[in-house]
Amino acid sequence: SGYGHTVPLSDGGKAFCIIYSVIGIPFTLLFLTAVVQRIIVYVTRRPVLYFHIRWGFSKQVVAIIHAMVLGFITVSCFFLIPAAIFSVLEDDWNFLESFYFCFISLSTIGLGDYVPGEGYNQKFRELYKIGITCYLLMGLIAMLVVLETFCELHELKKFRKLFYVKKDKEEDQVHIMEHDQLSFSSISDQAASMKDDQKANEPFVNSQSPTSNDSSLNN
């Protein structure tokens, strides 16, 4: 799914679209991940650590308040305010339809049923399209930063642990015992091989000793 009605029609265009998507999507994800990991250090981790150390508040409480404030700012700056702007710039959109476009876009659903800047009397259409592209890119980064901030909350981490697969203690003990038995058996095998080597050498030594004794007696 996407925006508008621009689609490849020729076989070459479709093949190029597949190759471009296979290469472009992973690189886009890597780019967004790298940007979000750097932004979250300055937006989330350092502010939380600053209030925790400077004012002595609990780190968990500061993290929860910070996540809520960051979420409110993100919703205001990338949902409510843009929806109001779109409702003014787009003649056929009301506030609900504009908010719907913002949500569908920033949630990466991208149905394409509402596309801004498609009106015939749209002024500064090229500049308007560039602004929408910048808005979508910054909004997507902001959404990922907020999600990463909430994922780092201690309470959410505890909730996520409920869905982890827990190993049975008896099963772990069985694996440990099996590992110990394998280690013991390998050691015992090494000791047995050393004894066999000694036994193999003993007859050779004993066969030389009588001859040496006889030679001494003859002398």
What integer is the average pLDDT?
79
End-to-end span in angstroms?
Answer: 106 Å
Strand content: under 5%
Global outline: globular
Question: How much helical structure, as a percent, in the residues?
Answer: over 70%
Q: Under the CATH scheme, which class of the domain at 11-155?
A: Mainly Alpha
Uncertain segments are 180-187, 199-219
CATH fold name of the domain at 11-155, please? Helix Hairpins
Structural class estimated from helices and strands: mainly alpha
GO biological process, one term: stabilization of membrane potential
Biased composition (Polar residues): 204-219
Pfam families: Ion_trans_2 (PF07885)
Main location: membrane
Q: Secondary-structure blueprint of this entry?
A:
Blueprint: H1 11-54, H2 59-89, H3 95-106, H4 125-151, H5 154-161, H6 169-218
Helix pairs in contact: 1-2, 1-4, 2-3, 2-4
In short:
GO terms for molecular function: outward rectifier potassium channel activity; potassium ion leak channel activity. With 219 residues, this protein is an all-alpha fold. Helix content is 79%, strand content 0%.
